[in-house]
Amino acid sequence: MAKRSSTLETTLLALEMLRRIPRAPRSITAGELHAQLVASGFERDLRTIQRQLDMLSTHLGIERDDGSAPYRYRWLPHARPLAIPHLSPQESLLLKLAEEHLRPLLPAHLMKSMEGFFVQARHNLEPDGNARLEREWPSKIRTVATSQPLLPPKIVPGVLETVSEALYHNHWLRLDYKNAAGRRTTVEVMPLGLAQQGPRLYLVCRYRGFDNERSLALHRILSAGQASTIPFDRPRDFDLAQYDADGRFRFGEGALIRLRFRIDRRTGHHLRETPLSKDQTVTECDGDRLEIAATVVDSAMLDQWLKGFGDAVDGVQKEAVA
Description:
Layout: H1 6-20, E1 28-29, H2 30-39, H3 46-59, E2 62-65, E3 72-75, H4 89-102, H5 108-113, H6 115-124, H7 132-136, H8 159-169, E4 173-178, E5 184-197, E6 200-207, E7 214-217, E8 221-226, H9 240-245, E9 252-264, H10 265-268, H11 270-273, E10 281-285, E11 289-299, H12 300-307, E12 313-320
Antiparallel strand pairs: 1-3, 2-3, 4-5, 4-8, 5-6, 6-7, 9-11, 9-12, 10-11
Helix pairs in contact: 2-3, 4-6
Domain WYL: 159-224
Pfam family, one: WYL
Organism: Castellaniella defragrans (strain DSM 12143 / CCUG 39792 / 65Phen)
């Protein structure tokens, strides 16, 4: 691939800067803009960004507020920016929802690189704007809990950022970890996946020297650091979706069983609408009960779910599936 000329690189940098400079009354410092650009792959020092901003503010409708350091920059309200695409109301809504729901699942540098667009999206959806229907949409939707809601556990500051960056770059991690029993260990792990289960986040990883996977709760990580700058080769035999399908996040080992049980008709009515599996069968029984049969992954979560029905469930049978 041909190498870009310095002129093209400078032009692309200027265009990217212009996209990220907000309109009045909002503003941005050279340092904030520099952090966003670096996170987006523009390797320039802060002084270069400052010179570019000074040049742009001289020739375009960009105001530099030099009343106090650090200086702040913004498009003037009456300025007509270059014809650089701006976010539509629909794009602003999508970005707002993405920022809210994906923040714990995206690497910190990607979130930082998108900060300028998140700011623009929030501004576009402010009450004094024209996007009334898009602004109202978040208040019209809700993800509701299927069990007793719990507050998320506290994660040590910096741990999520370090873990997600190591996962993104395929770098070894050194963790100071305390398990549920209170046992504290220092381990080096190969990060393979990040999963959100209700209010909790889990890191799927392999310990150095082992070839099996473990799930570590992020809120039990006391500290995290990069163990090596040399990336590892991601195992070809690992698939996060299959790991989940095997019931590993439900404290199972992937063993399939044919589950049978009887349940009170009224209590079990929802299983007709939301079955346990595609091959589930429902049989009417005497005494106002239903017999349910389904092929599922055996797990501790399944046992807990069945016990949660109390006397409404009986006759539980499990048969291994070859």
